[in-house]
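#struct-help
A.M.: can someone run this one for me? Single chain, 154 residues.
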Amino acid sequence: MDLRDLYQDIILDHYKKPRNCTELDDATSHADGHNPLCGDRINVYLRVEDGVVKDASFQGAGCAISTASASMMTEAIKGKPVAEVQELFERFHRMVTGKSNGDEEEALGKLGALSGVRNIPIRVKCATLAWHTLQAALKQPGKVVSTEQEEGVA
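D.P.: on it. Structure tokens below:
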């Protein structure tokens, strides 16, 4: 696979001009994530009201894949019920780990641009760091997560 296929225009756009890249002053929960293999660090902030993610943002430093994934994730989850965000996490994770089908990937919309990481296993952790940090923010606010903490976490 040519790396140029991976770094599609949408990924580069979100890397160069990340959306929602700020601390959320009125966050109801947050979590910090770290990928020690490549040094990516991310903080995810959420404002959840009545079971709905009303707002989401992130801050951090990382590679193009990590930053683009965080940017695209915050756009995708805003306004969605927490249960729907959980399902989105599951579908995204299946996509980047090569366990989804084409229909499921198509349903992910812009997030499908990150599907190429499944062909470069070391990059899967870059793409999923924000998503695992999101999970921690939803389930254990304030937690620090690492891509190396649990076996099988990608």
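A.M.: thanks! The two ends are 20 Å apart (CA to CA).
D.P.: also worth noting: Confidence is low (pLDDT under 50) at residues 150-154.
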